[in-house]
Write a structure and sequence with these properties.
The structure holds two protein chains of two kinds.
Chain A (H helix, E strand, L loop, with lengths): L11 E13 L5 E14 L4 E6 L5 H9 L6 E9 L2 E2 L2 H7 L4 E4 L12 H6 L5 H13 L16 H13 L5 E5 L7 H16 L3 E5 L3 H7 L2 E6 L2 E7 H6 L7 H9 L42 E3 L2 E3 L6
Parallel strand pairs in A: 3-8, 3-9, 6-7, 7-8
Antiparallel strand pairs in A: 1-2, 1-4, 4-5, 9-10, 10-12, 11-12
Chain B lengths: L1 E9 L8 E9 L3 E5 L6 H8 L7 E6 L2 E2 L8 E4 L3 H4 L6 H7 L5 H6 L16 H12 L6 E5 L7 H17 L3 E5 L3 H7 L2 E4 H4 L4 H4 L12
Parallel strand pairs in B: 3-8, 3-9, 6-7, 7-8
Antiparallel strand pairs in B: 1-2, 1-4, 4-5
Classes of the chains: A alpha/beta, B alpha/beta.
Protein name (chain B): ATP-binding cassette domain-containing protein
Keywords (chain B): ATP-binding, Nucleotide-binding, Transport
GO molecular function (chain B): ATP binding
Chain lengths: 314, 220
C-alpha cells in the first residue's frame, strides 16, 4: 500500500504559524485570542500526513488558514508556502479549488439549494468531469439517482461521501481532508481512505485531519499530533501501530490509550482555553512528568526519528 | 419503562421505503448498540423513536402506550451534527438554560468551561458543542437516551471521557441507552447488546431503490 518515496521538496510547508482572533470583550475593550501558536507542518508529494489531536486544537483552523477562509478578525503570522511560493490571500483564493482542494468538516458546507451532482463537478459540465463523477459515485456506492437530490435528502453518511467526491475529482495536487470519515461505516471509511491513498500514490499530497486515528495509522505515512494549537509530536505512522511505548509525547500516549480497543482509559482534565494558556509546555497541567523546567519555552527536538515538543521524552 | 417500535414503516412523500416492518424493543437500564451500513435508516429510526418524525406505519410505544405529545419527552436524542442541533443565534448559556441544565455539577461533569457559555455556537468546535447537547439531554425526566453517532466528532480522549461520564449517569439513573455507531470497538465497550439494522429492516433495498446489481448500499 505505502511506497517508499524519494526525499523531495515539500509541496506544502507551514512554518511557525500563529493565528489569533481579534475579539471584543466588555464594551469597547478588545483582546487577541491566540488559537494556533508556533505550528509547523510539511507535506511532500506522494505522502499522506494525518493530523490527530484534541477537538478544538486548531486542526480545522489550520486547514482554513491554508485555503484562506478564516473570518475577517483572524490575524496570521509565520509562513505558509506551496511549492516554495509564499501563499498570500490573493494566491490562496486563486489556488483553492484548482490546486488546493478542501474537504470541509461539516456536511453543512454543502450548498442546500444546489443539486448534489452539480456540486460534485463544481458546475463543470465537461465530459471528463461527468465520467470521473460517475466513477467516484460507483466507488462510494452512491446511486446515480442521488445526483438529482438536494443535500437535505441525503443521510449523514451519504452527504459525507458526496463531500469527499467533490475534492477527489478536482485536479488539485494538494488535498486537505478535514474529517472525511465520520458517519461512514467501516467498509466505506476504508474505501474513502483508500481513495486518498491512491491519490497520494499518484503524486498528490494529502493532509488528513481525523479522529478515526486507528484507521489513519494504517493509511498515513506520518502522523502529526496537535494539542492546544501546536504540534506536540510528528512521527512515522508505524510508531503508532506499535503502541504507546514507541511514542514520544505523553499526550500521544494518552490518545493511544483512550482508544476503545486499547483500554478506553481517558486521562483527566481538559485542553486549556486559548485565552489562558499555561506558561511553557501547553500539556503540562495534565502531565504526570511535569517539572519546573516545563515552564520554559519548549522547542521541537528530534528523538528516535520523530519530532517531539517535550523535554522529558526519551 | 419499555421503549417499543411495532411494525414501523417510514418513507418521505413519494420516496421509497426507508424503514419497513421494523420491530424493536428495549428496557430501561439496557445499553443497546445500533449498527448497520450508512444510508440504511439508523438516523431515521432514532428520529422516529424520539418523536422528531411521524411514522407512516406502525407505532411507537412507551410501556405499551403511545407517547405523550405534550410536556417533557422522556426519550431524548443526541444528534450526529451538533452544529445543526443548536440555535445559531443563541449564546451557549441560553441553550443550557432552556433545558434547565445550567447547573454547576452538569458543567463540571461534562467538562464545559465557563468561557464557552458566553460564546455563540459558531465559536466552538464540534466536540465542545456536543458536550452541550449531552448536557441538555440529561435532565431529570429522561428515561431513554438515543445517541446518534454522538462521539464521532470528538477526539478519542474526549470520546472516552464523555462516554465514561455518560455511562456513569446512565447506570446511576437506570436510563436506557441506544447508541448508533460504526465503531465496533466502541460498541463492544459501551453496549450490552447490538442490533444490526440490516437484519431488522425489511426493505427490499435492491429492488425498491432501483439499484440493479443488488448492492446493499444502493438504498436512498
Amino acid at each position: 500500500m505505502k511506497k517508499e518515496r524519494m526525499e523531495n521538496a515539500p509541496l506544502l510547508k507551514v512554518e511557525d504559524l500563529s493565528v489569533s482572533f481579534h475579539m471584543y470583550d466588555k464594551g469597547l475593550e478588545q483582546y487577541d485570542l491566540k488559537v494556533i501558536s508556533n505550528l509547523s507542518l510539511d507535506v511532500k508529494p506522494g505522502e499522506i500526513v494525518a493530523i490527530a489531536g484534541s477537538s478544538g486544537s486548531g486542526k480545522s483552523l489550520l486547514a482554513h488558514a491554508v485555503v484562506g477562509i478564516l473570518p475577517e478578525n483572524a490575524r496570521l503570522t509565520g509562513s505558509i508556502t506551496y511549492k516554495g511560493e509564499i501563499l498570500d490571500q490573493k494566491k490562496k483564493e486563486a489556488f483553492r479549488g484548482t490546486r488546493i482542494a478542501l474537504v470541509p468538516q461539516s456536511i453543512a458546507y454543502l450548498d442546500p439549494l444546489m443539486k448534489v451532482g452539480k456540486q460534485v463537478t463544481g458546475g463543470d459540465r465537461g465530459k471528463e468531469a461527468e465520467i470521473s463523477k460517475k466513477e467516484i459515485f460507483k466507488r462510494f456506492h452512491l446511486d446515480e439517482k442521488i445526483e438529482k437530490y438536494y443535500p437535505f435528502q441525503l443521510s449523514g453518511g451519504m452527504a459525507r461521501r458526496v463531500l469527499v467526491s467533490t475534492a477527489v475529482i478536482s485536479d488539485a495536487s494538494l488535498i486537505i481532508a478535514d474529517e472525511p470519515t465520520p458517519g461512514l461505516d467501516l467498509e466505506m471509511a476504508l474505501e474513502a481512505l483508500k481513495v486518498f491513498r491512491e491519490l497520494a500514490d499518484e503524486g498528490k499530497a494529502v493532509v488528513l485531519i481525523t479522529h478515526d486515528i486507528d484507521l489513519a495509522f494504517h493509511i498515513a505515512d506520518r502522523i502529526a499530533v496537535f494539542y492546544a494549537g501546536t504540534t506536540v509530536e510528528m512521527a512515522k505512522a508505524e510508531d503508532f501501530l506499535e503502541g504507546a511505548g514507541k511514542l514520544r509525547h505523553p499526550y500521544s500516549k494518552a490518545l493511544w490509550q483512550a482508544l476503545p480497543q486499547n483500554g478506553f482509559r481517558p486521562i483527566p482534565g481538559f485542553q486549556p482555553y486559548a485565552r489562558y494558556l499555561p506558561k511553557g509546555c501547553l500539556f503540562s497541567p495534565r502531565c504526570p512528568h511535569k517539572t519546573k523546567e516545563c515552564e520554559n519555552d519548549i522547542p521541537m527536538s528530534e528523538i528516535r526519528g520523530g519530532y517531539v515538543r517535550c523535554i522529558h521524552a526519551t | 419503562m419499555r421503549l417499543e417500535a411495532r411494525n414501523l414503516g417510514f418513507c418521505y412523500a413519494g420516496g421509497p421505503w426507508i424503514l419497513k416492518d421494523v420491530n424493536f424493543s428495549m428496557e430501561e437500564g439496557e445499553r443497546v448498540g445500533l449498527v448497520g451500513p450508512s444510508g440504511y435508516g439508523k438516523s431515521t429510526l432514532v428520529k422516529l423513536l424520539a418523536g422528531y418524525l411521524e411514522p407512516c406505519e406502525g407505532e411507537i410505544l412507551l410501556d405499551g402506550k403511545p407517547m405523550e405529545k405534550k410536556g417533557v419527552c422522556p426519550v431524548q436524542l443526541i444528534c450526529q451534527h451538533p452544529e445543526k442541533a443548536i440555535n445559531p443565534r443563541w449564546k451557549m448559556k441560553k441553550v443550557l438554560e432552556e433545558s434547565g441544565m445550567y447547573r454547576e455539577e452538569v458543567l463540571e461533569a461534562l467538562g464545559i468551561e465557563e468561557e464557552w457559555l458566553e460564546r455563540y455556537p459558531r465559536e466552538l468546535s464540534g466536540g465542545e458543542l456536543q458536550r452541550f447537547c449531552v448536557a441538555r439531554s440529561l435532565f431529570g425526566g429522561t428515561h431513554f437516551l438515543l445517541a446518534d453517532e454522538m462521539s464521532t466528532m470528538l477526539d478519542v480522549i474526549t470520546q472516552a471521557q464523555i462516554w465514561n461520564l455518560m455511562l456513569r449517569e446512565v447506570e446511576k439513573r437506570k436510563i436506557g441507552l441506544l447508541a448508533v455507531t460504526h465503531n465496533m470497538a466502541l460498541a463492544d465497550c459501551v453496549c450490552t447488546r447490538t442490533i444490526n439494522l440490516a437484519q431488522v429492516n425489511h426493505i427490499k433495498c435492491a429492488e425498491e431503490s432501483g439499484c440493479k446489481n443488488g448492492c446493499e448500499y444502493g438504498t436512498v
